[in-house]
User: Fold these one by one.
Assistant:
Number 1:
Amino acid sequence: MPCFYVPFLSDDTKPITISGDEFHHIAHVFRYQVGDEIQLTSGKGLLGTAKITSLDKRQLTAEILDICRKEKSSPRVAAAIPLLKNKHDALIVEKLTELGVSDFFPILTERSVRQASANTIDKLEKIAIAAIKQCDNAFLPQIHPAQTLVEFLENPAEFQPLVALESGKNIPLTLILKQMPPQPLCFIIGPEGGFSEKEVKYFKEKQIPTFTLGNHILRAETAAIATAAQIIGFFLEKNESYY
């Protein structure tokens, strides 16, 4: 059953009114009618089931039938991703949101081919909203402002950075995870042309762990999805309820 994004959803069971884009999707795209049940997500930890009790041309009212509060598991996983041409960075946000990544840090590297525009973050946020609706995710990831790679590494928030490299002597990601204490992680993916020699040298100077995903050259979006899947799979082995 499709899920709809209602950021004002709360723990109480008072009837709610839905208008705007979500109303359009419910009433005109999926053509729900009075009496139908719909699934809701707040993006802040709540999933709910509601029954439509009234519907007009602009809005609908729904009775809350059930509310479930989810807790975001620890450690959190974030991704620092390059801005890519042909909307491939949007694909990364979509698929990593489905997997459960909590934060996205758009980065600009020396070989980046695309710069951030005034609406870049807004577009990525809309992609993330669509993704949580698709997979019934209770948490909307945070899309941080675009910054340079160096700016991010100077202040990676609470996350331990890890870098995916396609060259040099790097060890498999799973081995790095086994050697590290449980902590919030942010993996960094390079642009279409890879990281520059200067950037690779910077990683070494900062003693940032680097890892390999295998012996094939991967596209940035493939590397991002593969990395997120491996990290979250590793945490699932430790905690089968990891969310």
Note: The chain has a mean pLDDT of 94.
Number 2:
Amino acid sequence: MEKIILGANVRHELGKEANKKLRAQGNIPAVVYKKGKESTPLKVDKKELFRILHTSASENVIITLQIKDEEKDSKPIKDKTVIIKEIQHEPIKGDMVHIDFNEISLTEKITVNVPIETKGEPIGVKSDGGVLEHVVKELQIECLPTEIPQRIEVHVEVLKIGDSLRVKNLTIPSGIRVLNDPELTVLSVVPPHIEKPAEEVAAEEVVEPEVIREKKPEAEEAGEEAGKPEEGKK
């Protein structure tokens, strides 16, 4: 697992307006959380954070935060080993507006989500025109931070139409425990979707109305029966 160093500064001014000012200066408000301890508000450089997110490890990268307090000293006051917990984005433009970190220990297991990546082309797609469906795109795993894989690779070349792979069929690296249901379907190859002619679809949509005879009340039917002349009588 790739480890990255990221500079961070203690954030003394909190609140919406203060955060807006930070973003205008090219920083992203951040918070470091650790179970049982008080959270630490920070600010990090937006460009540096963007660079980290575009490494091969993406959001599962292990980061060493070198924290400074600009108001007291320019030297780092503490290092924290963290992993990204959540990134908040502006809903319209998609810009990063806040990031949460979880402080971790390299000797304690953590839970993360890892993407699933397919290798090869299924024979059911290549030869028979089927479609490979990605039912599950990532797995939830538990392992030491240093053993987090960048991805879970799945070879799909032998899959035919109608075949599927479940969690229990995947090859998982040693030291990693998958938390998903073993019976959960991850990938499947389905028959090609055939478009019907417009005329055929239109014909199927035309349904003849069902003729239903209205049932008369029992009392009315009984009265009609009473008013009928008995057979053989005038």
Note: DSSP finds five helices and 13 strands in the chain.
Number 3:
Amino acid sequence: MEVKLNLSNAEHKELISYCNLNDLLVSEVVKKSFTSGFNIERYGLLSEGAKVVEKEVEKIVEKRVEIPVEVIKEVVKIEYVEVIKEVEKIVEVPVEVMVEKEQDNTKLKALEQTLHKLKSENIDKDKKIKELEQTINNIQVNQTNSATYLRGSNLNDKLF
């Protein structure tokens, strides 16, 4: 089957000048150009020496199937129950207290005496503790770490 190609004058002149410059036949250039252009159109842009390889591709197709399900509607009955809460409320009521000045003074004096007595006892105990600590230190300083044995014994004169 023969196919005719209609070119404009400018396109025809370019084709002829290209073929003359490169010493090519016009029919071969047209056929080669058609073939490469058609392959690009059909397969997309490929490298020049690449061959088209057809492959089988397996695809997993998921198909959703709707299964009718019967929905059972339940009637929910809501009952409202009245709840009574007992709340304990604490209210402060100011109360007038009548205190005699003499009772306050006697209590205050008794507290001051007790406080004075406790402070003096505390000071005495601190003095006693310091004295005991000093005697312990004296004993530790005077104590020697060696023991002396009789000359007739087998042991050395000093153990430590």
Note: The mean pLDDT is 79.
Number 4:
Amino acid sequence: MKKVLIVMLLLLARTSAFATAQIPDHIMYQGETYSLFAEPLDSYLNRLTPGHHELFPSVCTACWRGYVASWEVRENFLYLSKIVEGTCSPDAHEIPLENIFPGQAAPVRANWYSGVLQIPQGKRLRYERRGYGAVYERVLLLTVKDGKIISEMTMDNTK
């Protein structure tokens, strides 16, 4: 019974973290910097260390993952260019990429990532206080396979 209670408390604590809007990663795409409503680094970190959140202890409910990453798309490939501590402070310390990618210089090509990157664009239409639930006029969807952008689609939320 005691174990069940502990598990339930842990699940509730984890769920409440998702109840706060999150500080997004950033992505440079076609010369513009946008927010990124996806976390491509997590798929790499999950392979490296399941339960990797201990690597980035978060002191901010708006950044439960403990870091904010900067990405860029160059020649149709996704690259990780920078990681900073997820402290909710504008002067957060940079985490050297070498700590996570030994022997690799920035930017690091994201060959590990396959999925869809959501890039909100335009005016925010609705604010949500959980995760990346805010709705924007448009969302650019980049489909990525093994780090390569294979398709692009824009979703219009104004209709």
Note: Confidence is low (pLDDT under 50) at residues 1-18.
